[in-house]
Amino acid sequence: MRVEVEGIEKSFRSGGRTLRVLEGVDFVVEAGSRTAIVGPSGSGKTTLLGILAGLEQPGGGTVRIGGTDLFALTEDGRAEFRARHLGFVFQTFHLLPALTARENVQVPLELLPASLRPPPAEIRARAEAYLERVGLGERGHHYPLQLSGGEQQRVALARAFVTRPALLFADEPTGNLDRETGARIVELLEELNREAGTTLVLVTHDGGLAASMDRVLTFRDGVPRPEAA
Amino acid sequence: MIGERISGSFALRMAFREGRAGVRRIGVFMLAVALGVAALTGLRSFQADAEEAARLEARQLLGGDLRVQSQTPFSEGLEATLDSLAARGHQVARGVSLGTVVSAPGGPGGRLVQVNALEPAFPLTGELEEEPAGSWERAARGEGIVAGSDLILRELGVVPGDSLRVGSLRLPVLGTVRGLPLDPGFQTLAGPPLFMGLEALEEAGLLGFGSLAQYRAFVVAAEETRPGQLAFALRRAAPDRAVSIRTARQEAEGLAAGFRYLSGFLGLVGLAALLLGGIGVASAVHVYVRERIASVAVLRCLGARQGPVFASYLLQAAALGVAGSLLGAALGVGSQFLVPVVASGALPFELNPRLRAGPVLAGIGTGVWVSTAFALLPLLRVREIPPLAALRLEVGTEPAGGRLLRLLVLALLLGTVLALAALQLGSLAGGGGVTLALTLVLLLLAGIATLLVRGLRRLVPAGAPFALRQGLAGLHRPGNQTMPVLVALGFGAFLMGSLAVVEANLRDRVSLDLEGGPAVLLFDIQADQVDRVREHLRDAGVSEDPLPIIPARLDSVRGVPVSELLEGWDEDRRWVLRRLYRNTERGELDLRTERVTAGRWWDDAAPEGGPARISIEEGLAGDLGVGVGDEIVWDVQGVRVPSVVASLRAVEWAAFQPNFFVVFEPGALDGAPASWVALAPVGDPVTRDELRERIARDAPNVSFLDVSALRDTLERVARRVVLLFRSLAGFVLAGGFLVLLASLLTTRYLRRREGAILRTLGARGATVRGASLAEYDLLGVEAGGAGLLIGAGGGTLLLWWRFDGAGAVPWGVLGAVWAGVVLLTVAAGWLVTGPVLRSAPVLVLREGEGG
Ligand SMILES: Nc1ncnc2c1ncn2[C@@H]1O[C@H](COP(=O)(O)OP(=O)(O)O)[C@@H](O)[C@H]1O
Ligand SMILES: [Mg+2]
Q: Which terminus of chain A is less hemmed in, N or C, by CB atoms within 10 Å?
């Protein structure tokens, strides 16, 4: 899915002062491409990603994904849009602690509108298949607390991919992991991108990971700018 | 040494710094502790107030330094002794109090009241408050009647100036008075008494043989004489234990013991609330500690030793315990000062509440101890957190060494409960029973909760609505404290459930109507009136005959004199030997309420010359240790009457029929002094009024009780008791809701984050909210259902054990309470977490706001 970003602005007010974080961001992400966003801490990467996924309203500007204007939709409309088309991977995993690994992976499928939702047995089978893919086939009945950080992130990946989203956002997916585990996660990401043609947009500090993407946007002065990859 | 001091202050400093977070986390659970402490403090303070008031007012309550009381007129010897006391300068005055029916002519049916007839010399001690002045003086002269309070006049529907029918007299109501001796027990149950002159009472013809009268004399000792000495002299003149001789001091002690018993029992409820608070604290600390694993590990990495770190957390728990207990004590003292306002009139004396250090300190001490002890178990984990946990989050091993410690702490907790319950009841066995029952119910609740939560998760099909399944999963949320919440709510519901069952059964049982319609009860019918009364009854279409009542005491059982038996028996069983039995004689078994369980009912003529045959109720036979063929000798008004047990009977006491412990064969008691009673259905109100008029004309001393009047009295008593129990159960249920509220407050942020994650994954707002509602619904349904069911079971068991059998379970009431619990649970959940569920999903991107 193609992402068109136009004139996105965002500022935060805190303690009476206004902090301008995004100052007119414009760029396009081609369908099926892989884009890395890099920049120093606090430069606005997470803020941008949140807006791209429709989690937060921008101060101004538009985001079109596959032609749909995200912020013309209602809050629930965006939720349904995410359920159908988007996947998200967080730096801190964000698994639902009350659900087992398998149940966590099932959630996005279960949230699909009834017309698109597979029957329960298939939901389960697909969740198991994706857990298998990330090497956790045996751990489906474990709760997040019983999994290590790397394992939790792999569950989060399976959860992000189980609906075969057209577009996947990842916010420092390897930031909390050791180098080796991080490398496995990246491998998985790329594998899934190759197979399903998923558009990847990821924020990272990892120079190596950024370099392996098609394109790198670097944040400077509130605006991500393209650099030679 | 220096090292010790440094780590000691380290613990304090850490406790202080971290405590700021702790207050937010566990603070709410302290409300539950506060509730329990409030109950304990309030009750103990009230008890102290009541005891003090009883001591101060004992003379006035008793009516003098000394009271002599008997169900039969005093013997000549006793009268002579009283006269000689008066001659020696002691003040002596006499009175009679009796339960009888009075009515306002033309007003609604009669009402059973206590009438106190006294000589004009009263009050012997203390001040009289009367309205208008001089009322009592006139009443004492026989000019009318005065009331113990306005209340009773209102209930009778009269005002001063109207007249009341008392026996054969019509007496004008002169006013109200306070300060004359009365029977506090009767007043508490049935309401305040009426007072009149002693001579007028005799004139009213109420003192026939067998009337429910207490003959009394009051003595105020002259200077320099100890009441005890007088009591001794009187006792020699009336060795029969049926004559009670009581000094003001004994009266005060008796009253105080009564209040101790009552507040000890009520205090159990406070204790239960406190324990729920303890459970809440334990679970909150558990969550808190888990959140603190990382910081503890860091501290350990930085070189902190186990002890001080542990101590720092223990200090935090204790500090919160102190805070909760202080709050509770303040609430308790507040309610102590409210009691006199709320309960005025229900108590026989005036309370002067004052702040008492003892109960307050005891309450605070108990609260601090319980919250600290309950915090100990989860805190043990702090000792077990290795420094390594700072490096790897997923360390979760439990060192084997902790097991012994854990068992010790568990033993400490059980010991705490046992000690508190035993202290509360003043008996180790009672405390043990309560501890056992409490533990059993809590374990049962916990077991059912586990089964249901686990089982439901398996049972709910994968195709069920997402919100339902998500709500169910929410019960497993780490830190959700589902179990303690279910147990705490369930316990409140348990009390409600058992109460509902017991109440419904007892109410069903005491059905006051006879088959032919609403009943009338005629009592104190004298020998020469029986035939006339029977005729009037026949005219009213009633076929029942009046039954004779022959009062008698036990003289010997199986050849052993009662005086000898008394020595070997416990105080609480002796009553069976001493009491006045109201026996009857009858030819037929009353098939409606009786059944022979051993021996044979007499259907032949009495054998010549032998002892009279009797049939005895099986429970009493058990108490006395007699069976068929055993001999019992009765003392019937001074005449020894031998009898032999011919049969044992099971009697359905609750049935509204005249029932008797002991039935003699017909003719056995001919010539013995007796009075008669009749209980008869008279359905038609006109016939009933006619009957009342004819009886009043022909046999004015006969008490004619429209049972609906009795029903009022009984229901008033029942309502008071039920209200008391209901509010207590409600109190505990409120404690359960506090635990729920606290858990909701502590999981608010977790829920907010969960909601945000779901929204990020594409859940609509309604789905997120639906999942929450489903979770609260499940909580309420489970806790309420399990609690009420266990309560219904417990109530039924209690009925079988105490009342020989249980009837129907009031499903309607239980259902209503259940719905109430569910509704309140959902409402509480919605109020606390509804707002946070509406926050924007972007929250997931920001760490530090989660958890
Ligand atoms: N809700 C908020 N309120 C105030 N300031 C915010 C808020 N969210 C983000 N910021 C600020 O916006 C800036 C960009 O944050 P973020 O997008 O998280 O940066 P990055 O992900 O690049 O590290 C930071 O300075 C951060 O403090
Ligand atoms: Mg960031």
A: C
